[in-house]
Amino acid sequence: MSATANRRSFTRRLALLGTTGAAVVALPLTALGGAHAASPAKDATYTVKTGDTLIKIAKKEKVSGGWKKLYEQNKGTIGANPGIIKPGSKLVVKKAATPAPAAKKATTGSGWTAPVDGVKGSGYGRNGSLWSHGHTGADFPVNTGTPVKSVAAGTVVTAGWGGAYGNQIVIKHADGHYSQYAHLSAFKVSAGQSVGEGQQIAVSGATGNVTGPHLHFEVRTGPDYGSDVNPITFLAQHGVNA
């Protein structure tokens, strides 16, 4: 017998069973392959009403896995034919778990946040052999691959190679200050793009003039070298303990 004939025969058999007084549903064979992957779920009980079908119940109760899973879990109650469910029957249903709310960004509420999580920056103004003047930023000791965030909303001025800074990003903020992120291994934004507070803009690395992986972070009153301010003090003034 052809596949088409099988489908017609199956549907006719289900329709004839409607005279027995049980709730009936015609389940075309094409509906059998659409079950979704199960997710964490909770057990509940559903009492079958006149006119109910497995499809209706699964949809109404948001059953994880759809009607096919509902039948599998209640085969002992329903019997061999999923097209017949008796009113008054008690079915166990596993509802799809409600997705957990998305994690909120760790921000201060002041509009500013730290450029990386979990470590403190240091070294501003320090003398050293790697720079001709005092250290113009703060270094955050993080491994290559650490997410780097914009400390506040702003517009990306530069995202590219910066000589001794290696791969760098400079962002202009609404108050007129600029923040710089250097020695990056990869960019997540490009010049001209608007970014939000706490948005990932890059991945830390060890490019440019470095002795090891870390994030070099500066705050400036202008876009160019030499207009720096103490970035740790600046962030502290905005409620950020960096």
Automatic annotation (TrEMBL):
Q: Which Pfam families match?
A: LysM, Peptidase_M23
LysM domain residues: 44-93
Fetch the PROSITE patterns from UniProt. Answer: LYSM, TAT
The answer to whether keyword Glycoprotein applies is no
CDD domains per the UniProt record, alphabetical: LysM (cd00118), M23_peptidase (cd12797)
Q: Which UniProt keywords apply?
A: Signal
Q: Which InterPro entries match?
A: Cell_wall_metabolism_enzyme, Dup_hybrid_motif, LysM, LysM_dom_sf, M23ase_b-sheet_dom, TAT_signal
* Secretion signal span: 1-37
Show the PANTHER family listed in the entry.
MUREIN HYDROLASE ACTIVATOR ENVC (PTHR21666:SF270), PEPTIDASE-RELATED (PTHR21666)
| Name of this protein | LysM peptidoglycan-binding domain-containing M23 family metallopeptidase
Taxonomic lineage is:
Bacteria, Bacillati, Actinomycetota, Actinomycetes, Kitasatosporales
